[in-house]
Amino acid sequence: MRLWGDAMWGIVRRDAILFASYRTQFASQILGPLFTITLFYYISHLLTARTIHSPGGYFGFVIIGLVIVQILTLSLGIMPLTVRQELVSGTIERFLVSAHGPVNGIIGTMLFPLINAMLTGILMLGLATIIFGLPLAATAALAIPVSLLGMLAFMPFAFILVALVMAFKQISNATQFIIAGVGIIGGLYFPIAVLPSWIRWASEVQPFTPATDLLRHLLVDAPHIRREWICSSSWASPRCCCPPASCCCARRSVTVNAPARLPSTEQSRSRRSPVTSSSTNDLLTARVRMPQHVVCRSFVAETVVLNLETGQYHGLNPTAGRMLQALHAAPSVGAVAPELAGEYGVEREQIERDLLALANGLLERGLIETVDDDAG
Amino acid sequence: MSPTTTSTLPASMRADAKSADGLALPADLPALGTPMLELERLYHRWKGPKPPVLDDVSLDLHAGEVTWIGGRNGVGKTTLLRLAAGILLPQRGSVRMGRLTPQSRGARYQRQIGFLSAGDRGLQARMRVRQQLDYWARLAYIPRERRAELVADSLRRFALEELAERRVDRMSMGQRQRIRLAMAFLHEPRVLLLDEPRNSLDDDGYALLSEQIAQVTARGAAVLWCSPRGEDRVLACDAGYTLEHGRLERVV
After folding, report:
1. In CATH, what number does B44-250 get?
2. Which pLDDT tens digit goes with each residue over A354-363?
3. Can you give the pTM of this predicted structure?
């Protein structure tokens, strides 16, 4: 293991030496993205999109996408080129005739681009913060391990590209295709909510959508719609295996994970239909909660509820906002009535009628869902 | 040349030596008196309507011996060396070093092979000579405590000490060839596979190479030297062959 580590470090060191030997490489690697950041900074002044929920507006939203594109370009794009150079210069033969072997050699070749991509990403964020005033969140440091996991999740794609280089010698267009594709379906430049529903499934089966969501949440405190640990493990762990396994896992995540993580409209309807058609007592005894695709923020004058599936905002007056807050934490709809009756000084029956009216309205709009106690 | 006894071998080559790096297990290596490397009934044919470049070729390389293979360009010498080095896998036949084969014990097998390809490829152009050798020592799984010593030794043996801190792309072809040779010899392999090793070497370089070959064979390594040039037969080889129409014919 120690010898293996020494060999891996040798490859990283070699690539660092080669990188440093081209004096203008680092500068050009930074200047290009800096111009792109500047471009999007001024474009963001023109945009006021309702579907973007980022403290920094569109600039805060897109900067994370730009950093990810840069990381992708430097890792996914550079790796095949590096292997191509190794083939042309004959240095790949060193791996073939070494104890370290070609597979370890190729893996080692991927390490420096990954490290370089990570450092460049950090530098880009630093520039965006210092020059353009990007409001970084206090949790920004957590983005580093998340990014590493994200890159690990994309390693199978890099392996596929490297394999294609070995087989066909030249695949530069394939890299561009993948990066552009991820840019569209991964929500890097715009929220996936604006995509047609028939293409959104592609956003769900590849790892960059949840990774991007999580990174935005950690870096600029954008609202996050999934629980981090479920999200991280679901996109990172299965996909860091070999490409075929990764493809299988991706398919599984369509059939297994998707309903649990993000209920479709049909599923939401079927889940709540027994309640809407049932008696008042059924709803009073039911437990309700906000689905994962609903984000709620309370302000002094109103409570804003956002349905991320439809992209629609809903405003609640302070009383309804208080009711929603109480419903979310209560064991049943009826259970909150005594507390609220005491709070507002009205009859319990009156509160129950108001609670039922509100709960039915929220159910209709998909802003709450009933919870099956057996399922927890 | 007589078979070398264990007492003449360096520590890493002795059959009773304990592996320092976990790779060279004594039980895997050839027993004394048996060939160091056995190529048995190798067959290889490239795509297309051409006849096979190797057709039922068998060759044994013995400890302490130098074997030379000559032949015209394109007859299959490099293919034979690549099969022996484990870069290509045989379409038929087998390559064996005791219990080690390129397929089953890749890392352990490669640890025992020193390979020099033809031409001037395989060097990192923008690295310095010492960095190049250190990089190769790491890939060859040389333990950390021996790495600096072996790198320094290689620099000395191939007269590269003065060039140690110079970048490879600023060197002559002959100097590059000496670096490539230093890499092939650096990890003290048991079998050296050299494809046209004399390329670009001046008389001093050739003398260094001959001296190093004499030293490693004295320690019990086997050397296979391929070149199209008949004059290479003048080197002190223990066996000489020519490759023609896919078959080996003994000439020495």
Report:
1. 3.40.50.300
2. 888 888 888 8
3. 0.68
